[in-house]
Design brief:
This protein has 107 residues and is mainly α. It is built from 4 helices and 2 strands, in the order αααββα.
């Protein structure tokens, strides 16, 4: 990706990951809770505000719905953003491990 973007918030990161398959807002909330063992709990206001922003950026798009719950899916541009973010996070993680010697299991 030629252009860098600011780091994604954890919420936006999980919203984009959730949308590799079509999902509605509540489905995004459920998957995010499942993936993070309930550590990240996205409220409805957060989800729908983020969805609006992600639609405007072209990172997700709506899918034709049956008139009930609108579903969304990630776009190719959104996938590029996720790939860039994963690369950024990998660098962050690897530098932390290299400098600290790795996570120590204290207990």
């Amino acid at each position: 990706m030629s252009q860098q973007h600011p780091p994604l918030t954890e919420g936006v990161y999980y919203i984009l990951l959730s949308l590799y398959e079509p999902r509605h807002g509540y489905g995004i909330i459920q998957l995010t809770q499942q993936l993070t063992n309930n550590r990240v709990n996205l409220g409805a206001g957060t989800i729908y505000g983020a969805i609006k922003s992600l639609l405007e950026k072209g990172w997700i798009r709506p899918i034709e719905d049956d008139g009930r719950k609108k579903e969304y899916i990630i776009t190719n541009e959104g996938k590029k953003i996720i790939e860039y973010e994963i690369s950024r996070l990998k660098e962050l993680f690897e530098n932390g491990i290299r400098i600290t010697g790795g996570a120590k299991n204290e207990g």
